[in-house]
Amino acid sequence: MNINIIYIIGGLVVGAGLSWWIGNSLEKNKLKKSKEDAEKIVKEASFKAEEISRKADLDAKELLYKLRVDFEKQNTSKKEELNQLEKRLTQRDENLEKRLDFIEGKEKELRSVEGDLKKSFQEVDNKNQSLAMLIEEEKEKLKKISSLTPNEAKELLLKRYEEELRGEKAQMVRQMDDEIQEEAETKAKDMISQAIQRCAVEHTTETTVSVIPIPSDEIKGRIIGREGRNIRMFEMATGVDLIIDDTPEAVSVSGFDPIRREIARLSLEKLVHDGRIHPARIEEVVEKTKQEFDKKLMEEGKSAAYEVGIHNLHPEIIKLLGRLKYRTSFGQNALLHAKEVAFVMGNFASQLDLDVRLAKRAGFLHDIGKAINHQVEGTHAQIGGDILRRYEEDEVVINAAEAHHEEIEMTSIYSLLSLVSDAISASRPGARRETLETYIKRLRQLETSANSFDGVDKSFAIQAGREIRVIVQPKKIKDDAIHLLAHDIKKKLEQELNYPGNIKITVIRETRAVDYAK
């Protein structure tokens, strides 16, 4: 019994020790595993922290780069605006200096004329006094040598002097008419040349096709879309033709309406840049571009009006002026043509002592009808007059717009100046475009016609075909024959060629003697 108790107690002791040992081993294993899990969690946390730090650095660098690019763009834009403002101020200073020089010259001329008039008046007074003395002497002589009464002698003397003065008067009137006509022609030519020289508006040539560069040819497939749905949607939304051919990294937008073509070009550039090209996105971008383009038209109109110096224009007229930037006539930009006509009319008005601001306003708005003449029936002069009348412009400005092509009667001198200034702007060299093929053909015809004469060595058409210089062989053509040759070339050009304006023909005969000293 005691032995069993001892065995039982010993077994309990051994079991307790074994349980303690097993528990202790399990605790150690759990502790070890917990340490390993903790180390693993720490490592993962450290890795994630490093990854987050790297991503934050990249985001910060990307944000910094974007901010730097935006700042550079804004800085460049501000510099361009300042440069343009500086050019305008410089040009205005030059115009003021030229005007001041012109006024000073006129003042000197007036002083000189005033001095000449004083001398002339003094001479006339002296002659009148001498004439009165001669008349008194004649009266005394007549009394002595004639039995005529004083009244009869007076009538006879006055009749004789009247006949003499009538002849002198006719001669003086004829001489003064010739001088006035010559002076008027000289002043008119001077006014026209000054108006053209003071106006230096650059003309750009627009076409019916706009080319849009694309990053790669893969974009062409995305522009076309599945079964052509994208390109059909784009053409339907913009009203233009989208041409996608083998031209590398470029597509073309074709359309007669320059406004639609410009909207299509801007919309396509946005779609290509964005990358999302599908029918819904195309419709959204085109609509947004149309709204932005209306604002752009207002900005263009305001900028042009500010440059010319025209104020208090109706917003709708300003918008129509902006549309003229995208309108051409014979290759001449309509908005630049309007500004040039305004400048020319302003110069004419200043020299004729007219209202310069009113003249500029009439010239600037004379072609306003061209902004919508493809949408409304009638000539652009009639449409322009209706537009200006609708927005309560001055009657002088309205008549200048309606009559600058002589479709109605002119009611003021400003209408005549509008016609003349419009013709100067349209006909001056370089204003309107001529196709290269026609231009080269005309130059060749000029040179061929001149070279066909015997004794001509070479001929050169210059000044865009407005002048031809003919070099003759001095052994065949003498000095007294070059005038006859120039006349013969003139007759042949008039018979064979059709050309606007005049062609100046210059015949050059040169004899050179060359020797060498050794």
Could you characterize what this model shows?
Among the domains are: 209-308, 2-Layer Sandwich (Ribosomal Protein S8, Chain: A, domain 1); 436-508, GMP Synthetase, Chain A, domain 3, CATH 3.30.300.20. The longest helix is centred in the first third of the chain and has 144 residues, at 2-145. 21% of the residues are buried. Residues 200-206 and 429-436 have low confidence and may be disordered. It has a three-stranded antiparallel beta sheet with strand order 1-3-2, with helices on one face. It contains 14 helices and eight strands. The chain is elongated, with a radius of gyration of 46 Å. It has 518 residues and is mainly α.
Structural class, judged by helices and strands? Answer: mainly alpha
Overall CATH class of the domain at 209-308 = Alpha Beta
Sheet with the most strands: spatial strand order: 1-3-2
- Gap between N and C termini, in Å? 159 Å
Q: Give the biggest beta sheet.
A: 3 strands, antiparallel
Overall pLDDT, averaged?
78
Q: Beta-sheet strand percentage? A: 5-15%
Kindly report the oligomeric state of this protein: single chain
Low-confidence stretches: 200-206, 429-436
Record field, number of beta strands? 8
SSE inventory with pairings:
Blueprint: H1 2-145, H2 150-198, E1 209-213, H3 218-224, H4 229-238, E2 241-243, E3 250-254, H5 258-274, H6 279-308, H7 315-324, E4 328-329, E5 332-333, H8 334-351, H9 356-364, H10 380-390, H11 395-403, H12 413-427, H13 436-451, E6 456-462, E7 467-472, H14 482-496, E8 504-508
Parallel strand pairs: 7-8
Antiparallel strand pairs: 1-3, 2-3, 4-5, 6-7
Helix pairs in contact: 1-2, 2-8, 4-6, 5-6, 6-7, 6-8, 8-9, 8-12, 9-11, 9-12, 10-11, 11-12
